[in-house]
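User: structure tokens for this one?
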Amino acid sequence: MKKLFALVAVGMLAVACMPKMPDLPEVATLPSVQLPVANDENGWWQADQYEGKPVLIVFMGSWCPWCKKTMPAVNSLNKKYAGQVEIVGAFMDKIPGPVRDAARDNGFAAKTLYNAGELAEGLGVEGLPHAMLFDKKHRLVKMWEGYRPDMEEQVTVEIDKLLK
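Assistant:
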């Protein structure tokens, strides 16, 4: 009996001394958010309206030269996946004027939102441009930070996986 008690005590001690396994990270999800549309004075974009559809959000700033270099890739993705994926440019600018100007001057055709700073902060965005792809249930699938000349190709691969 003493041997059994000693064995149980040693086992309990061993379990107590084992390092705790870290909790699995929580999957980031697109919150229920509403952002103003830059080229529509009364328009609002609501994430909830796109439930059941993948969403690509590219966070940008109207002043950011790397964001402007990213716009052609976003335009191409927007054209390629029209109706299948909701693709938006979410600008940090608090007012629509500079966003409209940047979109117009750079031929940006995707839906253009502004005042997205709070959303970006909540999603952990630290640099611009920053693209985030969410699946049909609006769970984060992949993100890309910074300008990438091959952004269109990388995002295409991930979107195609979601649409299969």
